[in-house]
Amino acid sequence: MIRSTVRGVGAALPRRIMTNKDFEKLLETSDEWIAQRTGIRQRHIASDDETTASLGEAAARRALDAAGLTPADIDLIVVATSTPNNTFPATAVEIQERLGMRQGFAFDMQAVCSGFVYAITSADLHIRGGLAKRALVIGSETFSRILDWTDRTTCVLFGDGAGAVVLEAREGQGTMSDRGILAEALRSDGSHKDKLYVDGGPSTTQTVGHLRMQGREVFKHAVGMITDVIEDVFGQAGITAEDIDWFVPHQANKRIIDASAKKLGIAEEKVVITVDMHGNTSAASVPLALNQAVSEGKIKEGDLVLLEAMGGGFTWGAVLLRW
Ligand code: UT7
Hints:
The chain is an alpha/beta fold. It is 32% helix and 26% strand. The protein is globular and about 55 Å long.
């Protein structure tokens, strides 16, 4: 059977770094509060010349280099983003154009912080369905552009950046020792849509709007939803937490990550943490963390890797793959 296998990973971060201390000059907040409640110490903030498309393109080029491929080898681009360059066309076609690609097809995926998990699942289904052989799956965000910089309960939490993987169709045996994506679970529940949203849009206010969040409400649901989809993929694969080599969670809050890992019985040393360096980069957080873990020599060929995310909607999901 066909398995969608990761052949390369890459990332791109804006040049400018903003520390917690920098916020102390702007708002009634402190490095201690932010670090203790979230684990965040700094985040990257895009300058005017850095956009979701330019960061996504840079991450994609690095993933292609890591894979030893060129844009000519790609026939699908899926971009997970909630901060597209324009309402339309999709940022994915803009990246396609920037990469000089005239072949294949490209589209955006909008599932907020779960975007990358939704996008890699979608790319996997396109590959296994025979519509594509090699896909670029990109998570790219410039959340700094939709933050209310006077609201200390949200603006300290988010950052900008992009990560990308190249997925390739390879023949597998249909067993759990195959390389590639082995199991996936996606969920959403729109009854929670008002807990994390943007208060603008083309069809309502004709403005872009700003991010609004009831942080405590999101926190309350996060661990249960995350562990629910992970138990689902464990069940599909017939494995337990002990079989996992690396846990690469969405990086929103270190307390949520720690509580989820503890509830599932995943050892602390298997958890990849980047929230301290990047803040919450929404759909970019999982591929940014993947890139970090690979470049530090942690994730290696053959390792069993568990991805998860949860965010606005609510949306949530998990993907199990062998690197
Ligand atoms: O990726 C999408 C998913 N999003 C998330 O996963 C976010 C989930 N939520 C969270 O991570 C946490 O709820 C927050 C980090 C947003 C907040 O942490 P918390 O422990 O839930 O704090 P809280 O909202 O209960 O606020 C505690 C206090 C409040 O003051 P009072 O009402 O107790 O007097 C806040 O006004 O902390 C205050 N506060 C701040 N103080 C200093 C809120 N933001 C700040 C701040 N600096 N930046």
